[in-house]
Amino acid sequence: MSKFLSKLLTVPNILTISRMLLLPFFALGFFMNSKAGLVLSLAVFVCCCISDFLDGYYARTYKQTTKLGQMLDPLADKIVVSIALLFIVGFHVVSRYAIIPASVILCREIIISGVRDATEFSGQNFKTLFLSKFKTATQMLAISMAILASILKSQGVSAIGETLLWLSSAIAIISGCIYCKRQM
Fold it and tell me: Per the structure, how many domains does the chain have?
């Protein structure tokens, strides 16, 4: 294997890329229009969440941090969460009011991607806040709970999922403001 490929194909990068490659299976579950389909979507989403944790852990522990990974990992997170939000809203897994926190989260992700690009273009390092990691974890838990509520047909689980979605949108606003203020 060439030196280039060995740097590219690290375990963390493979995990990150696999998250994006799993998304068609996530979508397929929704289009199956059945409980089994939702179970498939939830299983795929949980696998994506676990791989997100594992790629970061593995990259830090085994010193396999790469420029490609630093670019792909946050992009993969944004893609996975954005697609999942679109599906849970579009397939009415959550209430119609959930479009508000989902829109806030999506807008924040677009804005912060621009801030990240501008920061790195100017030669500065874009450091991720712990609050942003907490935001991502809250979003992933909210989405998982929303899908689980739909599987179980549980109003209680649904309320927890939607509450977490609203909480994650508030965290998104706060962390987004902090990032933007850093760049002023």
Answer: 1
Q: Would 76 be classed as within a structural domain?
A: yes
Contact in structure between 151 and 40 (CB atoms under 8 Å): no
CB neighbours of residue 166 within 10 Å: 15
DSSP letters, 17-78, are HHHHHTHHHHHHHHHTTSHHHHHHHHHHHHHHHHHHHHHHHHHHHTT---HHHHHHHHHHHH
Tell me the CATH number at 147. Answer: 1.20.120.1760
In a domain? residue 1: no
C-alpha separations of 180 from 8, 70, 87, 128, 175 in Å:
31, 20, 29, 12, 9
What is the pLDDT averaged over residues 119-143? 91
Query: Is 2 within the bounds of a domain?
Result: no
> What does the alpha-carbon distance between residue 3 and residue 104 come to, in Å, rounded to a whole number?
42
> Residue 1 — pLDDT band, cuts 50, 70, 90?
low
Helix (H) or strand (E) run with residue 175 in it: helix 155-182
In a domain, 59, yes or no: yes
Range of the structural domain that residue 38 is part of: 7-182
pLDDT digits (tens, 9 = 90+) for 21-58: 999 999 999 999 999 999 999 999 999 999 999 999 99
